[in-house]
Queue: 4 jobs
Job 1
Amino acid sequence: MSGATKFTFGTDFREGGRRAAGEADIAAARAEGVVAGREQGRREAESQLSGLVGQLARAAERLLAHEAAHAAEVEAQAAHVAIVAAKAMAGAALAQRPLAALEGGLRECLSHARHAPHLVMRVNSDAVEAAEELVKRLAQETGFGGRLVVLGEPDIASGDGRIEWSDGGFVVETERLAQLVEQAVAHAFPGFRPPAA
């Protein structure tokens, strides 16, 4: 045997006799694997982080939507309570001084219609006597010299009335005022629904 090799530790006898990998090759493969593993780990971490950020964003959107709905509900309830309280106070004030709104309107009318030949005040039939006293007192206070007439009408609500003179008039309708207040509140608080009567 002329060509026999004494030691064959560096030869791989599988698949056609390739040379076995040396330590440098193993270290290079190891380093390459570490780099590839780190890159794959980074990509997976970014993917997980992206998924978590998306979940967090969706949770925050739901939380904000829930909070906005809750705030709208609280505003609507507050507006409802305010309207109910205002109606209760208005009812109490009306019971205490049924002609208070008309008194303010009449005082204003008498100052503008001081020279009118006559002034007519229409009120609820039950309030005629009180209205006549009010008209006489205010006419004396303001110096109104025209004729004053108070008429009672059953279809006019208590506390409501109309004041008329030749060039104009003035109307007090608590129901219409309540509607205007409710419209203003509904405009300010979109979630508000007027309370049931």
Job 2
Amino acid sequence: MEWIEVRPEVEVRAAEYQRLLGYPPEHVMDARSADLAGWAREWYAEHGRPWVYAREAGSVATDGPSVLIEGVRFPSGALRKRFEQAAADGAVLAAVSAGAEIERQAQKLWREEKPDEYYFLEVLGSAVVERLTEIAGERLCAWAESRGMAVLPHYSPGYPGWDVAQQSWLLGLLKTARSLPGNLQALESGALLPKKSLLAVFGLTRQTDGVRRLTELVACESCSLPACQYRRMTEEP
């Protein structure tokens, strides 16, 4: 399976955008903030270049504290545990990006001493990445179900128990089959360029009993950002 989509339709939910902006639930933005949020959405709708790429891995195996994906060893006890607990023997590798254009514009606004415009556009980029990841998960969930499989929630370098420096290894695997639909680099530190991007592994299992549908999971359950003031509350199932 290989999925390439350039400029997918990305409708960021108002509640998610407001959450990332730092507003509490049910908050009503004042006129200035509402104008900035509307402007950021309009700018991105015209100039944004989001993209999604995903492909099924050729081989997956667990070995000690590591997961081997197409022969590349990813030392991560957390990733291995997720695969073993779900009896996952396959994976989909994915990359999503809001595109470089939004970052260039945000930097331009900062240089022009327009911090409000910078902030609203910068945060929109984060919201777009979150929504793209959600879209990818939903699409992969439907694809897997049609084949008698279940998709595990995505996991990424930088999440608990997975060294962020391994971003470059995962990116190398993603680029093995073909060029990605947009430019994407991984620095030695693990940071991605453009930064409004995400690399992820979605485990695949045929042991579907007891595996919750991806669409029922809350994204923040896997977030590793320490002391996040915007973290959503989750309820026990």
Job 3
Amino acid sequence: MNFLSHYYLDKEHPSVYYKLGLLLPDLVRGYNQHMRKGVATYHPTLPEHQAITAGIAKHQLTDKVFHGLAEFAALQANFKSELKSLHLLEALPRAWFLAHIGVEMMIDRQLLKLYPHLYVEYYETLDAVSQPVVEKYFTETGCNHVSSEFFGNFKVFTERRFLQYYPSDNHFTEALLGAWYRATGKKAMPSVRESTQIALMNFERHNADLLQAIPEIVTQQLKTAT
């Protein structure tokens, strides 16, 4: 799932460091290759570090459950179908990746449409995190080699607060194609951007109910997975 969705499922948890842990794997590129082993072998004594580790574990479990859902597979197929109908599969290399992140980001967009102030609460939570506490976490897990990347990404994430723009059709399309560009190195031509936005809006209109239902479906699946 994407940024806001992870937070939404556990927003009642009292620890800001747990919620940071829910975010952390998405802000370290190649987390599984560069950080997972250090976290798995770390036995924290600080409550804040215990919370970060627990948040990371919940992030990973939630991703496993979510990506295994038949509903997620169906949503990806539906989005690819919309792209295909506008002849975008050829214009957008790795369209499977676009469909994957498109569904994830669209779920966050639905949450913001249902709960417009959710992003404010989320960013206020992250603002309460103490950097020295997190720096010590990277040191004690032996992951200092990725700490600068994390803190750079975290700074951009919390300062730009781009989630607030997801309800805007234009901004959402730009955000999706921006993520696709970072993964592929390809920039979409203006005509492709316009067609992609049409595909996104068609996809949303046809799948809004299922997109909005996903957080509850994941919540129920998590109850049987733990």
Job 4
Amino acid sequence: MFVATKGGLRRPGGAWVVDGDPGWLRLSCERSLQSLRTDCIGLYQLHAVDPKVEFQRSLEALIKLQEEGKIRHIGLSNVSPAQLEQALSATLIASVQNCCNVFDKRDFHNGLIDFCQARRITYIPYSPVGGHHDHARLSREPLLLQLAAKYEATPHRIALAWLLHKGQHILPIPGASKTASIRDSLQAANLALSAEDIAAIDRLPDR
């Protein structure tokens, strides 16, 4: 089992507040080590670039934690192609975790996914079946319903299979709150979509 987690957020009153301060990143990492009862986290990702903190300072904090053996691999989340390139000038980046699904293909359009493939960086799409806002839309999208009937699968499985077909470096992370959804998601790895059907999904308009 490979454990991955993130740092760089605060939750005052349940809100999501970005905090890339080096001191907070260190404290967050050390708390995660305690919670996970381990000496080293396999993959530790910066949750988002903090506009109030120089990006280089956040990166240096993660690099220091890696040098101390508390992090094995450094990853980034919610980053642009330019931010990824800046990070690569300072250290190796193992992964990028951004929002990506059939209704949000911005990282295909801006070249980030291709760039990750060229640099052997794992691309981890979060909300791969639409997330909080668009997951129900999958079950209403005519194309996905048509393909679900064709392949005897669910629209969610079609959406995951589409991502898996887009590159061997792509590792979607769907939600796992129900046993049935976990089993359905796992079957996406064995679903072979035709090139024509992949292209049809590619043409679906983004939200």
